[in-house]
Write a structure and sequence with these properties.
Blueprint lengths: L2 H14 L7 H23 L3 H32 L1
Helix pairs in contact: 1-2, 1-3, 2-3
Length: about 80
């Protein structure tokens, strides 16, 4: 998933997180997108040679990673309550 696509998915979640009428299907679709981004991100991070480049990777992508991880937790919790 591209940076633009993950930004759109996170924007959708922020706009709909409090909405009571969001379908489980829509939540599941966005959850899968976020999980795919997270898996790609983690895999790409592991491919960085040496600790310095991993640190640089974390500095560049830490905000996105934290936002995606939080959204995944929130959506999973909401789906568990449904």
């Amino acid at each position: 998933m591209s940076a633009g696509a993950v930004a759109e998915t996170l924007a959708w979640w922020r706009a709909n997180a409090a909405a009571a009428d969001v379908s489980s299907a829509a939540l599941g679709e966005h959850l899968e997108r976020l999980k795919a981004w997270k898996a790609d991100h983690d895999r790409d991070r592991e491919l960085q040679p040496g600790p310095f480049l991993k640190l640089a990777w974390d500095l560049v992508f830490s905000d996105d990673d934290e936002q995606v991880s939080a959204a995944i937790r929130d959506i999973e919790a909401r789906l568990a309550r449904a």
